[in-house]
Amino acid sequence: MRFDRLTQSRHKLPMAYRPAPIEVFDQNLIRQHLGRAHAAGGRNFLVPSLAEELVDRLNFIKRDFGSALDVGTPTNELAAALSIALPKATVTRFSAISDPQSDDKVRRIVVAKEEINAVKGLYDLVVSALAFQCVNDLPGLLAQIRRALQPDGLLIGCMLGGQTLKELRQAFTAAELDVSGGASPRIAPFADMRDVGALLQRAGFALPVTDSDVLTVRYGSPVELMRDLRSMGAANALVHRNKKPLRREILMRAIDIYHRDFSDSDGRIRATFEVIWFSGWVPHESQQKPLKPGSASVRLADVLPARNYDSTPQ
Predict the structure, then answer these.
(1) What is the pLDDT of residues 33-54, one digit of tens each?
(2) Is the pTM of this model over 0.90?
(3) Which stretch of DSSP H or E encloses residue 209?
(4) Which of 206, 234, 270, 299 is most buried by its number of CB atoms within 10 A?
(5) Is the separation of the CB atoms in 219 and 269 below 8 Å?
């Protein structure tokens, strides 16, 4: 009887109920890292090239966009590129910090949380570059973006994928195991391309598409890589990170392992950055739709060439 009452009480929960997202990233710390990077004149060397590629991808879409929103891109390059590529469009940028803005055509809104406070159907284009990998509630954010988009509106962007900084992760894990007998999280967990596509479908986007590019950047040493990450504002912001200062023994051991396992013949080390590209449309009656099962008028066997298979054991 007790189990029956417990089951009945569960069924009375509202349909919209869902567990709170797990806090993987410290959003306040992310804003601090980005603010310090901008104040020190840091740069994100990936964003300019990704902004250029995103605009190139938009050029293949024969569609006029009138209102565009950049969600969370750490620098202004993407919004500035959009303002040039779409001269008739109103471009708005949601930023985590009040960084200097060089393009007067871009309207910037500083947001303190992972939320898009926008009127329903306000935009027909939403873009983002290198921001979604640090979001705690990505399904919730995608749902908000879908709400902010007009019918037949487009979401297109990119984020870091699972192979990113795999060399640095392996080097630090091995170093901590060697020195202290345990390992703490130092490199963020990144999404898989298939998971991103599934999240787009879950949020209600139609015609979802994902693909990935794997970039290899070479450095003189792991220290140069870590300095570059700091200048990008990409230092460790995991909630469950080890908050004690990094021990020198662990750092030196990680550098040795990195050189040993991930260096080329000229002594320079490799760093992997996987960029996952994604896009999806808000459903509209004008979009392509799959045919109903059983509606085909031609048999697959009539189209494919005949093949003979020899079942004789080899």
Answers:
(1) 888 888 888 888 999 999 999 9
(2) no
(3) strand 206-219
(4) 234
(5) yes
